[in-house]
Amino acid sequence: LIGISLCGCRKEQEDTRLKVVCTVFPQYDFVREIGGELVNAEMLLPFSVESHDFSFDSLTVADLKKIASADLFIYIGGPSDKDWVEELKKSVKSDRTEYLALIDATDVLNESLSESMEHDHEDHDHLETETIDEHIWTSPKNAMTMCEEISNALCNVNPENKAVYKSNFDAYNAQLMLLDS
Hints:
Helices cover 41% and strands 22% of the residues. With 181 residues, the protein is of the alpha/beta class.
């Protein structure tokens, strides 16, 4: 009985690591590399969920709590998540959570897609529309840029560990440069 009561009285240690929520795996992996043991990184979208089909309505109450208690929320910022993240920002009122859209810092590829065809009596006109390729992490150069942005964001949120984040970024960036070459 004494052992049980002592176990019941022991308080759980508070996790003092930076809380970072990422929408998809690539940025989650980058955060783990740069933040190391100082960061508690979590992925918002489960592996079984297609990110292009995710919407604000897909979020659970647990997801909203996770985001509201995060120090940093990282998302791509392209057509697949831009709208629902804007709705999220309006719904989750947290002075704590910083948002980082990685697409703003990277070069994106524009793709020309033929969405529909207009038929004219004399000839056929194709309506072309441009869209961006959101898969920005597939370029090592973009990955380097995104990792630098993540490092800067971690430093801004947690300046006392700036040296660690910068050192981790430098080491990971060297690997990405090797991959690019």
